[in-house]
Amino acid sequence: MFTTKLIEESLKGSRKAQLKLYNAYCDAMLTIAYRYVKDMDTARDVTQEAFIKAFSNLRRYDGTSSFGVWLKQIVIHQSIDCLRKRTFDLCLDQVPNLSVEIDDNWDVEEHLEVSHIKRAIDELPEKYAVVLKLYLMEGYDHEEISEILDVSVNASRTQLHRGKNMLKDNLKRTGYEMSHNR
Q1: Among 28, 55, 142, 165, which residue's CB has the most CB atoms within a 10 Å radius?
Q2: pTM of this prediction exceeds 0.85
Q3: Is 178 helix (H, G, I), strand (E, B) or coil?
Q4: Which sign, positive or negative, has the C-alpha torsion 70, 72, 76, 79?
Q5: Who contacts 176 (Cβ-Cβ below 8 Å, separation ≥6)?
Q6: pLDDT tens across 66-87, in order?
Q7: Where is each RNA polymerase sigma-70 region domain found (predicted)?
Q8: Domains in the chain: how many in total?
Q9: What is the pLDDT of residues 154-174, one digit of tens each?
Q10: Strand partners, 107
């Protein structure tokens, strides 16, 4: 296993192995960082910081998930930390409880392209976009999102619900129809 060997060599202090790991995962991690911070220079900084954090905590990698998944989590956390530092107020815990049941089943019309959805998500306010990206693109559940963002599960659900509604409205406005529970 290529990655396992590189991790072992990196743990022994091999800079060459670290560089190979970096080169193998850099582009994918940069894409993930950019998805959140929406600025290429900032995404590069976030990615660099995430790799530094990963290499300094490499002994904590236990192999229960792939190295890429482990690294991706670090990049997402680093991206969200960057957003917080940029003084974007995610204010996720300051939302009232919804009295309606929130349904997590959400289908889109088949003709709708992922690029259109991503573009529409990027146009949303940051606090909604982050939760939508974590849920829809990264596949995290509400418990995981609440841990990542340090908010309640209810706040995650509420922000997702509001973000989805805003996203639907944005897509309808631009001519794309969305359906709910076909």
Answers
A1: 142
A2: no
A3: strand
A4: positive
A5: 109, 111, 112, 116
A6: 999 999 999 999 999 888 877 5
A7: 21-87
A8: 2
A9: 989 999 999 999 998 888 887
A10: 179
